[in-house]
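User: Here's a chain of 242 residues. Predict its fold as tokens.
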Amino acid sequence: MRLKLENPKILGDIISIISELVTEVKLKITQEGMSLTAIDPANVAMVYFKIPNDLFSEFGLEKEEVLGINLDSLKAVLRRCQLGSSLLIERQDNMLKLSIHDKIKRDFSLALLDIDADEKELPKWEFKSVIKIDSASLSEVIEDCIIVSDACTFSAAPNSFIVEAKGLNSVRVEFSSDELEIYSDTSSARFSLEYLNKFIKGAKISSRATISFSDNHPMRIDFPTGNVLLSFVLAPRIEQED
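Assistant: Prediction complete.
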């Protein structure tokens, strides 16, 4: 296996975001590209990303690889890539070799892990509501909600999208179809702001986000940029009755 990225920043940003949810993962390399699917330890959220093979300036692969990786270690190496650096990724026995090329050549070797976890796939659901929004606007709304509560409610109708959070204090933000793309029946679901606050870091890689949800059903947020995709799935917050 020999992969080369001329601009490793996109990979560094994605790994940095994902590492806030999961630590040890299986990184999958196929002829289609590099991908990852993982579930957080609390079994509440799922994360997925894919970088297609055409984003690599060199993509040499004899057989499919599944690499057990500690994301904190990988993130630390990727942070050493500067503007203008290129990154060469190779497997050497039970080590992953990462070579950073800029003014000098630096070689890092990370031990591959034996991770006992089933491979997951991103669920394919039909959603009642799909909202396409500026990722910066979504970030602002989530940050507003965190001020007053630990959870927020998404509500959508054919011509509106509302985000509300309530505690001792409250906040309500309403968007119309003039401000974003809404494809919706009437839906409402409540979600953890702790997780959403981690997800919105996807704004680093994409100026647009797509929110898909239904009544009291897991939601999905996609951050697409070109052929690169970063996606999150989050279980709804179900309030217990007294």
